[in-house]
Amino acid sequence: MSLTLLNAAVAVFIAICFVGLNAAYLVWCERKGAGFYQRRPGPMENGPWGLLQPPIDGVKLMTKQLLIPGGVDKAIFMVAPVLAMFPALISFVTIPFSKNIVAHPINVGVLMIFAFAALGGMSLLVAGWGSRNKYAMISSVRAVSQTVAYEIPMLITTITIVLVSGSLNLSEIAASQLGGFWKWNIWGFQEAVGYNILMPISFLIIFVCAVAETNRAPFDLGEAESELVAGFHTEYSSMGFGLFFMGEYANIVIGACLVTILFLGGWSSPVPLGFFPFTDHVGWFLLKIYMIIFVFIWIRWTFPRTTIYGLLNLSWKYLIPISLFNLLLTAALLKVF
Amino acid sequence: MSVELLLSAFIFIFLCFAIPTVMLMMVVFGPRSGGKAKNEPYESGIKHVVGMADQKFSVKFYLLAILFLIFDIEAVFMYPWAVSLRELGVFGFLEMVVFILLLLTGLIYIIKKGVLNWR
Questions:
Q1: A82-100, pLDDT tens digit by residue?
Q2: CATH class of B3-113
Q3: Rounded to an integer, what distance in angstroms lies between the CA atom of residue A176 and that of residue A91?
Q4: Has this prediction a pTM greater than 0.80?
Q5: ipTM score
């Protein structure tokens, strides 16, 4: 695929707009959702149903003082928010929204996304270390050990998908699930493998890891506001905080995209009807990712927070051994059938 | 220049323009005030900050970091194996069984040693 400079510029511009809009309006969804689950209206004042709240919040953040407290490590302190934002944006280069809507399908797309997700964990460490704040320090140690612990089961479980579809290219993985909801990887029926009962387990592991990797409740120990004020971004004001927020929501979108592509068939429509105008359309992809994000919000406002020990033990003692066995059994099934 | 590099470079350039613009807006529109209390790290209202932030913390977190290195590299080894498992056949599968069993033994040893016991 050849790519001119103009195409690349347009692709990147669309990606940035998509991330920005999503970050703004997912915050609104989150607050509305919180209101819904707690029996209160949520944001109502600005515009109909509070729909103007996100742009107003943005303006507010931009007109605040950019405070750099004394004693912080200035360079590190300023790099951290950018580092939170930039890997999330780069991951959008290879995420296929539909057959044609993809900036560039990279052959090792899955690996690339995981590599940049790890860089996002780095930003938490750097933010906490640079802040010279005790809350931020504790939070960054927690958040890094958490993202690090949940990265392993996620990496190992993704290999089961790579096994059954034989490719690391996200476009190819999604394309191999086209043609009806019974072909999606979550049910574990692939022509190459036959019926694979382990796929729902893989889906569960990846889903739990996606929630934990994005530092969301019930696994938001890094930002446990009742213990650690605001966690690693305690010292950040105005747009520094805004960038962390945008990076966080961009990561949520990427997690949802990844779950959709790996397990829920990407842009494939549930029923393959030839005359239906929206068969295998980008709309299906967006519908799926927003449903997953809705589940994320639902989980966040339903479950209480765990402890850091329980959180780390869940990964090291349960998820990692289970995912290793899951991988071996999937590989064995691939040989048997 | 490869396509990936081109796209990444574009994102980088966009960020290099976007973030200074935002920073400039904050400098132009934002208030500028200082003060001793404002300059200190946030401590929930305690007037004099006690101690430094970079204190000692539990050694368990270092152990977890080392564990992560082992398992992460292991997972990276598995990716090329997963793509080419169908060509490798039964031999490749048995090799991976040995590899994973070794690692699982390590994990069991770690758990038995009490690295993951928190008090």
A1: 888 888 888 888 888 877 7
A2: mainly alpha
A3: 21
A4: yes
A5: 0.81
